[in-house]
């Protein structure tokens, strides 16, 4: 059985289209998603909708969790001071991502 795991799309439509092209060539028996579908890119709602429509089972990623619980970002930053600047950039993506995906998609994540 061939299994593909797709993760860390971060709302990036171009990356998702490249992944779909690769999956078409590889033709796995099962595709799972590893989360981090939305935060950071310009098309988070589209990515969520497409993954849902494709029916890929999966898990919530750490940036998905940060959308659900923005205070978890502060906890993560405190535990990982070396990546504080990166986490500050993630923090900036949360409000526009939430505005784009809405409550229903957030619940699905």
Report the order of strands and helices.
Answer: EHEHHHH
Low-confidence stretches: none
CATH architecture: 4-Layer Sandwich
The beta-strand count equals 2
Total domain units:
1
Q: What is the CATH class?
A: Alpha Beta
Look at the helices and sheets and give the structural class: mainly alpha
Write out the strand line-up for the largest beta sheet, numbering strands in chain order. 1-2
List keywords for this structure.
109 residues; mainly alpha; Purple Acid Phosphatase, chain A, domain 2; two-stranded parallel ribbon; 5 helices; 2 strands
Quick overview of this protein structure:
By secondary structure, the protein is mainly alpha-helical. The protein is built from five helices and two strands; from the N terminus they run E-H-E-H-H-H-H. The protein has a single domain, classed as Metallo-dependent phosphatases (Purple Acid Phosphatase, chain A, domain 2).
Structure characterization notes:
The chain has helices spanning 13-26, 44-54, 62-68, 71-79, 84-108, and strands at 3-6, 30-33. The protein has a single domain, classed as Metallo-dependent phosphatases (Purple Acid Phosphatase, chain A, domain 2), CATH 3.60.21. Strands 1-2 form a two-stranded parallel ribbon. With 109 residues, it is mainly alpha-helical. The protein is globular, with a radius of gyration of 14 Å.
């Amino acid at each position: 059985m061939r299994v593909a795991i797709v993760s860390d799309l971060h709302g990036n439509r171009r990356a998702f289209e490249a992944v779909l092209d690769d999956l078409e060539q590889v033709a796995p028996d099962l595709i799972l998603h590893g989360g981090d579908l939305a935060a950071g890119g310009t098309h988070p709602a589209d990515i969520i909708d497409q993954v849902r429509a494709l029916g890929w089972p999966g898990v919530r990623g750490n940036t998905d969790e940060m959308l659900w619980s923005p205070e978890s970002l502060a906890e993560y930053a405190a535990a990982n001071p070396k990546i504080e600047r990166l986490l500050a950039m993630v923090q900036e993506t949360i409000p526009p991502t939430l505005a784009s995906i809405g409550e229903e998609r957030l619940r699905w994540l």
